[in-house]
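Write out the bound-state structure for iron/sulfur cluster.
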Amino acid sequence: MRRVWIERREECLGEQACVVVCGEVFGIGEDGRVTIRGGWEGEVGEELESCIEEARKVCPVDIIRWQRV
Ligand code: SF4
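---
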């Protein structure tokens, strides 16, 4: 599994770059900031690792984090 979380979520710009490259994991909440499958943190399958890493790279404020669990 891969644990995914958002550090300093208050810095999210809400421009959806992460959603474009990895919509399976990331979305935008009612407050206009990023969510991970409905929350701020979650676990996803390892097949999504390249997807979440791509999102981490494209995030302009570098707030996406993940680790193997
Ligand atoms: S790419 Fe970064 S700043 Fe943009 S919506 Fe996603 S988490 Fe927020």
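---
The mean pLDDT is 95.
The domain at 2-68 is CATH 3.30.70.20 (Alpha-Beta Plaits).
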